[in-house]
């Protein structure tokens, strides 16, 4: 009888040891990989409501219906569930509609599917998370970009190649002040490293990189009077204020810088009129050109988006 009791106790102890070891192993930080074992694909017949895709191109789209983020790569014939709670995608300071994903907070194409969001219980103790798939949703990898991080406001993720990408976020807003942070990856999104900070606490309006070294941050007040643009030419190691030569007739009209872009042998950038612009209806923008990598900008012409083809 004693041998039987001892044997049962031994089995219980071994079982508890295995469970503890497994739990400790799953708590380790770093990239977390999901390889879905159960089928993720679902046809429209399986849905409680017929899904109406929001297309990013002719074949690829997503849906937020049924309180679930789902993606399709074949015009809605088959759907893949994304392992992210819908509330997490809009967590932070966001007052827009929740019928579409936040602009620039995701990537959805044939080669890469990715979503940027925050998770955690306390607003001051959340973490910024990047989850992505390179096989159209069959497997997902999740990485922690930074933690803790306050309530996010601005968020943007983009890749310039298979390996190089950037994430730009802002948070902890108080009136017209907030913190902003830039993160770069050189391995396709598994590891993100923060660049040095710009030192600017004005509200972030846009930002991005045009290659692995040159990037921009655009800041703006609630009622802006002039653009505030910072540039880096060393992958965020240093940030410097760019000089924008605005003709006198456009002072306090073109007040917010949009993300610069490459055009032929120079850089181009649009300045818009901000939220309260009324010059020629408020939609006309000023186009500026830089021939020195974004440090100095000269006016080129007015641009009316409604008249562009």
From TrEMBL:
CDD domains in the cross-refs: Sialidase_non-viral
Keyword annotations of the record: Membrane, Transmembrane, Transmembrane helix
UniProt xrefs under InterPro entries: BNR_rpt, WD40/YVTN_repeat-like_dom_sf
Organism superkingdom: Bacteria
A Pfam cross-reference name: BNR
Bilayer-crossing regions: 6-23
Entry protein name: Oxidoreductase
Organism field: Lederbergia galactosidilytica
């Amino acid at each position: 009888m004693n041998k039987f009791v001892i044997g049962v106790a031994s089995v219980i102890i071994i079982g508890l040891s295995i469970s503890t070891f497994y739990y400790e192993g799953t708590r380790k930080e770093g990239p977390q990989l999901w390889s879905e074992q159960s089928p993720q694909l679902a046809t429209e017949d399986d849905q409680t409501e017929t899904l109406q895709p929001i297309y990013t191109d002719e074949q690829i789209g997503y849906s937020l219906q049924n309180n679930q983020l789902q993606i399709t790569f074949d015009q809605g014939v088959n759907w893949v569930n994304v392992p992210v709670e819908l509330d997490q995608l809009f967590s932070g300071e966001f007052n827009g509609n929740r019928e579409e994903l936040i602009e620039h907070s995701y990537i959805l194409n044939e080669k890469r599917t990715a979503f940027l969001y925050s998770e955690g219980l306390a607003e001051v103790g959340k973490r910024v998370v990047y989850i992505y798939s390179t096989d159209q949703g069959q497997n997902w990898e999740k990485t922690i970009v930074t933690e803790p991080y306050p309530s996010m406001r601005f968020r943007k993720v983009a890749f310039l190649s298979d390996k190089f990408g950037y994430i730009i976020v802002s948070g902890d807003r108080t009136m017209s002040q907030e913190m902003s942070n830039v993160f770069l990856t050189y391995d396709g999104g598994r590891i993100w490293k923060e660049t040095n900070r710009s030192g600017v606490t004005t509200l972030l309006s846009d930002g991005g990189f045009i290659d692995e070294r040159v990037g921009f941050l655009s800041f703006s007040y609630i009622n802006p009077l002039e653009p505030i643009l910072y540039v880096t030419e060393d992958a965020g190691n240093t940030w410097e204020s760019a000089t924008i030569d605005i003709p006198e007739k456009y002072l306090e009209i073109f007040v917010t810088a949009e993300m610069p872009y490459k055009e032929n042998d120079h850089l181009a950038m649009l300045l818009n009129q901000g939220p309260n612009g009324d010059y020629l209806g408020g939609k006309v923008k000023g186009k500026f050109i830089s021939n020195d990598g974004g440090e100095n900008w000269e006016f080129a012409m007015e641009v009316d988006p409604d008249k562009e083809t």
